[in-house]
Input
Amino acid sequence: MPSIKKHYKRITTNSLLEMKRNKEKIAMLTAYDYTFAQLVDASGIDIILVGDSASNVIAGHETTLPITLDQMIYHASSVIRGVERALVVVDLPFGTYQSNSKIALQSAIKIMKQSGAHSVKLEGGREVKESMERIIQAGIPVMGHLGLTPQSIYKFGTYSVRAKNDEEANKIIDDAKMLEKIGCFGIVLEKIPAVLSEKIAKIVKIPVIGIGAGKDVDGQVLVLHDMLGMTQDFSPRFLRRYLNLKSEIINAIKKYTSDVKLLKFPNDSEQY
Ligand code: KIV
Output
């Protein structure tokens, strides 16, 4: 029977390894601001990802490509101020690590110094190996991200399930082994067949966190605004909505607007 095996005061990369060894599943969610980060952290989440999905969710862009390093640092530093327990991972945004490993290291250092975050995440396998190695050598914990990598959306053309053929599946397996070998502390697998993720989670000793990658991995991640039902125009099969906040919020704001217009707010006890 799966269970919570141990109480952790603060989650570190070592705690995550221990959780995998103890078969305790790892729970990860995104957050982009102080208020939500406080709520997510207080709820006992293990990892908070300051994802470049902020580009979609917060800034309203169609893809993750436009978000900048300084914008990620703004989000990450706001999150860090609200977190006491979770490990905070920050996405290196598109264009800040692909060109060469020196630039990648500079980007990672800038995030760590200016936001106070605990680690960074990079998308891709062998293509970004050198960048990852250099960042790891500098003492910065790195998480990998394989499968559907949204920063490469224009290469893929669609957000459909990846690695349905053997060639792509084998590449992901080899990349996952490589990420473990160079010292990544974990891997996100996005939107790949469950049997493939299960295989990878068995092969590598580092935690494998899935999003649309089935249940037989070491943990799960979702975008906070999606699982709270604040966004409604995105409904992939893997997304479970735990709330329907969009209609709750709209109803509350409609009520407020009507109260203001009908002179029902403020009342006598709500003034000085
Ligand atoms: O940016 C993000 O939110 C992510 C998750 C989808 C894993 O990378």
Observations:
- The domain at 13-241 is CATH 3.20.20.60 (TIM Barrel).
- The chain has a mean pLDDT of 97.
